[in-house]
Design a protein that fits this description.
Blueprint lengths: L1 E8 H13 L4 E7 L6 E9 L4 H11 L2 E6 L17 E6 L1 E7 L7
Antiparallel strand pairs: 1-3, 1-6, 2-3, 4-5
Helix pairs in contact: 1-2
Length: 109
């Protein structure tokens, strides 16, 4: 048995939830916050049998797309702020960060 932990952008969360449910995967969703952009994420915890891992990864891959987004840089801490001209930067967001962990035992009460 495996535990799949997938961190996805909030924009992909509902689509992924629906796709996993359609394929009979049971999930637990946690609201989380990312570090770089400080935006909301959703972390999915998916327990599945070893033979179902590839199917779950395909569903995650097909429903969590990467895209580019314009982001205003954070102003410098200290220094001369008068010469600082914020120029939006294009960054890649979305997709999924996935961890797969072995599970020794599972209990449901």
């Amino acid at each position: 048995m495996k535990m799949i932990i997938a961190v996805v952008q909030d924009k992909d969360s509902n689509r992924l939830t629906d796709a996993l449910a359609e394929n009979d995967f049971k999930t637990t969703k946690l609201s989380t916050t990312g570090g770089f952009l400080r935006e909301g994420n959703t972390t999915f915890m998916i327990g599945c049998e070893d033979g179902e891992v590839d199917d779950a990864l395909d569903i995650i891959r097909n429903n969590c797309s990467q895209r580019e987004q314009m982001v205003a840089p954070i102003s410098p801490m200290g220094g001369n702020a008068d010469s600082y001209i914020p120029k939006p930067v294009k960054v890649e967001v979305g997709g999924a960060t996935v961890f797969i962990l072995p599970i020794d035992s599972f209990f449901q009460f």
